[in-house]
Design goal:
514 residues, alpha/beta, Amidase signature (AS) enzymes, eleven-stranded mixed sheet, 13 strands
Amino acid sequence: MATTNSSQLSLFLILLAILSSGSLTISSHGFTVEEATVAELQLAFKQNQLTSRQLVEFYLGEISRLNPVLRGVIEVNPDALHLADKADRERNAKAPSSLLPGLHGIPVLVKDNIATKDNKMNTTAGSFALLGSIVPRNAFVVTKLINAGAIILGKASLSEWANFRGLAPNGWCARSEQGKNPYVLSADTCGSSSGSAISVAANMAAVTLGTETDGSILCPSSYNSVVGIKPTVGLTSRDGVIPITPKQDTVGPMCRTVADAVYVLDAIVGFDRNDEATREASKYIPRGGYKQFLKQCGLKRKRLGIVRNPFVVEGSEVAEVFEHHIQTMRQRGAIVVDNLTVANIDDILDASGSGELVTFVAEFKLSLNAYLKGLVSSPVRSLADVIAFNNKFSKSEKIKEYGQMLFEAAQATEGIDSGVQEAYSNLARLSKDGLEKLMRENKLDAVVTPGANFATVLAIGGFPGINVPAGYDSNGVPFGICFGGLKGTEPKLIEIAYGFEQATKIRKPPSFKP
């Protein structure tokens, strides 16, 4: 009991330090980095109020201060300050890359299932099984970030193996242990891109990258009061990303504002010869990029379909706030089509019945084995090796407790058999008769739901979605609003999400409640 009281006292003292420290200024000009947007940071660079070195030092300081409690970061880049100095030199020399609006000199955390080839940071999906493995190259999205001048600050934590191992809670992985929600530390972080959401919400990074297979960007964004963009599958390359399934995996930004998320999206989209899905999806990328769709009047004349069942619990705090937001959207010129229903919604949300889980376990084994075999070096070379590693070498009682039933189910599969093919057909039918038909018949620009449970409807069709902060319950736990659409409709979704954000301005900094 004395040990428990001691740990509780330590946690209380850390929390007290967090709560008693306000926003920090880091230059003689008094510019405040906390909550600063990418555009504000770039303006501060331009006006000599801020350097990239000062910015990186600020975030490293915040990681040192907050991460022992929040555990949103697995590791930091030991070269981050060197890269910041390089960015400052480029800016002082007016190098062409530094003159473009965007991410030049901006620190970004990437989820720890996204490969970084510097031999100083690991790519492990939060597992000790991959600690010390060497990837053949940067993930394509990391290369795109570097080419845009961004500074890779470090690796964000995640639900281990992107929540595809066993029964571990959201936000837990062996390497960093349990991630904490910065608004209410005892609340769910959701997963699997929990660390990306935690870190950007708590100002431990300017912007972050997450990945989603089914809800892993949209859900943690909702629970941690940040903006998350889950792009159309193939709009961003998955090359160098530890996979679950190529049918649904996607990479997207998680940021404090819609505009910041769009800056990141512009930087990472594009055709990659190592990911065939990008060939088809690249046709959706608009000439001039996505920044042009950041319009204050983005809600005007948009047809928005409100899907309540089963996403709105009548009489709940969320339902009450959602009604208020619907009225705001109307007032801003949106055409609201209310009380719509996605056909076969119960079947869609049942991963076992829909066939989604069947495709997951079959494709995970094939995809992970291919990824592991492609590593330059690794302690494990197959899913079977990972299972054996966990059984033999894991010293954590938590790993034993949480198990690896999904791993074992995947290992038992024998490729893409007739059962998997049938599951593919069923998922395609559910999408065609569900969201596609609903949007076509009602001529919708987007579907709107509270929270992130609509993510599965989007996931099975490879469709895009954007979460925007929408409120906080009576305990202070955040919740978001989800705008979803059909493939390639990111421009409309960005207009709608930005219009909503500017009309409501809901997001506030975290409160770190115990």
